[in-house]
């Protein structure tokens, strides 16, 4: 599917965390703009700190895919513990932001085992100063999460970005 939004699980079938569904609109994603997301994810075990996340971000350059470097925590980065990052973004003890709060989706580790689903929800993408290499184009992203050497889950995304 060229330029279109697509996703797939890329982990082992025995991985505890599995993305069940994901939809994103509009396609291409517009920055700034509104992004409508719905998703469902299930986890067969409680996910506790440390949760290492490895991102591989590629951008299409003609027929080639170029891996983007990690610059200022954007791009193909490795985050040693996403739990700590969440705690920095949303101080523990404060309520989770909407729409997570409404749908009972946690925003801190540990994440209890179970199924989480987010019905169609709108998020505002602000007019952020993105580096030139992160603007218009087609992207592929691989997100792999692990804890203490055990893979938790892996997702591949493909999408297009259009900045105003």
UniProtKB/TrEMBL annotation:
Domain MD-2-related lipid-recognition: from-to ranges: 7-159
GO MF annotation terms: enzyme activator activity; lipid transporter activity
Listed SUPFAM superfamilies: Ganglioside M2 (gm2) activator
Top-level division of the source organism's lineage: Eukaryota
The keyword Signal is assigned to this record: yes
Biological process, per Gene Ontology: ganglioside catabolic process
Keywords, alphabetical: Signal
Pfam families: E1_DerP2_DerF2
GO cellular component terms attached to this protein's record: cytoplasmic side of plasma membrane
PANTHER family reported in the protein's UniProt record: GANGLIOSIDE GM2 ACTIVATOR, GM2 GANGLIOSIDE ACTIVATOR PROTEIN
The name this protein goes by in its record: SAP3 protein
